[in-house]
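Summary: Need help interpreting a holo structure output

Steps to reproduce:
1. Submit the protein chain below together with the SMILES for 2-acetamido-2-deoxy-beta-D-glucopyranose.
2. Request a joint structure prediction with the ligand placed.
3. Inspect the structure token block that comes back.

Expected: a single structure record containing both the chain and the bound molecule.
Actual: see attached output.

Input attached:
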Amino acid sequence: MVTGIPFACIFHIALLHLWSNSGVAALPHGLRSTEGTSRRTDVGYDIPIMTKKARSTGSRNRRRGNASGSVGLGNNVDLLYTVPIEVGNNVFAVNLDTGSSDLWVVSDTCRRGACSGARTARYPQSSVPSGGANVNMTYGDSTTGTFASGAVGLDTATIAGVSMNQQAFGVVNDTSNFLVQFEAAGIFGLSFPAASRVQQAVVTRNSGPIDTTDKFIESTYTSGPLLPRIAMSGALELPMFTVQFQRNTIDVGGEGLLTLGKLPDGVDNSSLTWVPVRPYSVAEGGMDPPSWAPNEVYLVRQSLKS
Ligand SMILES: *[C@@H]1O[C@H](CO)[C@@H](O)[C@H](O)[C@H]1NC(C)=O
Ligand SMILES: *[C@@H]1O[C@H](CO)[C@@H](O)[C@H](O)[C@H]1NC(C)=O
Ligand SMILES: *[C@@H]1O[C@H](CO)[C@@H](O)[C@H](O)[C@H]1NC(C)=O
Ligand SMILES: *[C@@H]1O[C@H](CO)[C@@H](O)[C@H](O)[C@H]1NC(C)=O
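--- attached output ---
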């Protein structure tokens, strides 16, 4: 992955991830259905993942070329895994990243750094509400990592025909991430909302730091990442997504599959091994329970620096 968090290994199903809906009242927002390249099935949605080989262009990528090589995908080749997301009136191919939690796309004002000469779709800076938050999203470690910075946009975002109004996302006008040179317009982070820089930036700007679990969970509904907001709105049969890659299809440049709200067709739950996420009590550094569910035990939420 160009974003700096390589998959440790690629199995039939690379990732399976659930959100806890417990204690969170369904807070329906205006959802509208649109046509897309995705397919609605009885219980959820299938979204094809496009894979694309991105030849390394410089030292920044070489290290990750090694990481790709270690899973048998060839040296000095990075793979981009993109899905189409509609933001406002444009469709953007965004790179899936399981190690981060934010959606960002490049702005039409991004010209320097990795944006120089990039021929990807761009989001109009003129559509960004003025006076909003700014965000700087960093990836990887301090010596080899990349950043993507800009203003926070608010627009309708649609994946698989499921739309969320007023979705907060990064409108990046400066980045060192070379994925934009390979016709990917940005990153779609699939990790937990606790790691969202955009949510943190918006909430901090509007009402100060996220200092309680109540504020964190409530603000995830209004200002959190796209997939958790869709799950919290009750639009999915099951609050889950899966990402499926098959090595043989990757080798021939084929497709993978992102599913929302269900397991992939043909995958039997009983054939999977479920590994529980370790909860941390408050004494162990975990988050306080929310006021409406005092017995809940949560993960660690690190306080992120803006
Ligand atoms: C990448 O591979 C080259 C050649 O095998 C090796 O010399 C180098 O140390 C590797 N770099 C990393 C960061 O693993
Ligand atoms: C974003 O973070 C990177 C890496 O720390 C830094 O080089 C860059 O100047 C920052 N950009 C902004 C706008 O703060
Ligand atoms: C990029 O966006 C930030 C945040 O809105 C703004 O402060 C900065 O001036 C912009 N930089 C350029 C080069 O457009
Ligand atoms: C799959 O099985 C696990 C373990 O039995 C269960 O907790 C989970 O709810 C099931 N998930 C689906 C999507 O059926």
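--- end attachment ---

Reviewer comment: Residues 109, 134, 150-151, 173 surround 2-acetamido-2-deoxy-beta-D-glucopyranose (ligand 3) (CB under 6 Å). Residues 1-36, 56-77, 249-253 have pLDDT under 50 and may be disordered.
Status: needs-info
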